Amino acid sequence: MAGSERALVCLPTYDERENLVPILEAILANLPGADVLVIDDNSPDGTGKLADEFAAREPRVKVLHRPGKQGLGKAYLAGFGWALERDYGYVIEMDADFSHDPRRLPALLQAAHEADLALGSRYVPGGGTVGWGLVRRIISQGGSLYARLILGLSVRDLTGGFKCFRRAVLEAIDLGTVECTGYAFQIELTYRAVRRGFRVQEVPIVFEDRRVGQSKMSSRIVVEALRKVWSIRFSGFGRAAAPRA
Question: At 49, which helix (H) or strand (E)?
Fold first, then answer.
């Protein structure tokens, strides 16, 4: 891809050494022509060093080192800023643990060409989850429903982190003022995009629990995020922008 058609996959990592090489290889194979930015938060297990070694032999892989763990949202914001400083027309965010299937990357990118923001959705026909217990399913689906009702959105999966943004979306939603850094970060970005008049398309995905390592998600994180929904609701972005031409 050249010029405004170039795509960048933002891949935050923290102690993902065992997953890193397989996920990079899968992304590169499934999205030819795209680049990958590994955003490592000084992982104690050496993930950052391994990323540097991989990038040294693969020019499509870049590495952004951060001094320490500051939260997933801040890692993504750093990656988005890096992308906007360069000539990328599409920016994708995804997890490094295979919970987001790299084989769905082409569909996600294609949807962003047709809309403005493409969301990998567990809660549309064809989507789903694997390896989740009843409590986790209730928390996730209930959280999305709660946020939808409070924010007045029709998007069914507000809490997912597998997304593809057109460059214009990231430029318009004022990344420097994003308040949330944890689980609610995903809700806030989608809300801001919708309130700026951008089109959102949900792409069905099957979310699978991480293959290697320990999940960083907990019910405490989700509950805290749901409290943040009210802050999002009464932010300046509560006022809808005029529809885009």
Answer: helix 47-57
